[in-house]
Specification:
Blueprint lengths: L1 E12 L6 E12 L3 E5 L6 H8 L7 E6 L2 E2 L5 H11 E5 L10 H11 L6 H10 L15 H13 L5 E5 L7 H17 L4 E5 L2 H4 L4 E6 L2 E7 L2
Parallel strand pairs: 3-8, 3-9, 6-7, 7-8
Antiparallel strand pairs: 1-2, 1-4, 4-5, 9-10
Helix pairs in contact: 3-5, 5-6
Length: 226
Amino acid sequence: MDLLQTADLTKTYGEGATAVKALKTTNLTIRKGEFVAVVGASGSGKSTLLHLLGGLDSPTSGEIFLEGQMFSNLTEHELSIYRRRKFGFIFQQFNLLPVLSAEENILLPLLLDSKVVDKEYIMNLIEFLGLTNRKHHLPSSLSGGQQQRVAIARALSNKPSIIFADEPTGNLDSVSSAEVLRILRDSIKQYNQTLVMITHDREVSDYADRVITIHDGEIVGDEVVI
């Protein structure tokens, strides 16, 4: 099932002679249940693509559809609600609130949206991610890998249509990185989620089902990993 689609998507920064085409005409389809890695060197356009797909930036031209509904033309207020209800985000910086416990950080997106908490789902999520004994701890008392697991749980807490991960292992050592990538791969299968992850590391992309390569703002490779 097609989940996310772009139609002639472009992004240009600046105007005239100083204009930079960060993303050239891009047509892309991501299917439900895929773990997609977007790889490329610094400045290749992969972050621009992720920000556009996640509604964190607006395209210069072209359209983006999620589940057949165009969202690239929404107002900022409408887009903020859309992001909160449809998307989950995982960043290189864990972005946990230091005064909240692990469990409170996980619940935050639901509370901000005044949603009724599915307690059974959240408890299962916490257990699945190995955080049961750490859920009442503040981020400062958690390891880097544990903090990223909290961030993953937070991204999954609102049962999003799609999760976007921006270099999610960039601040972790090799052991923690492998652990987090395995958890990401297993969790999207467990909860039937879709994940789009950007990385510059080919070893990280090996965990994905599909690898999209970007160079100078263009998709130059799209490979299904078997």
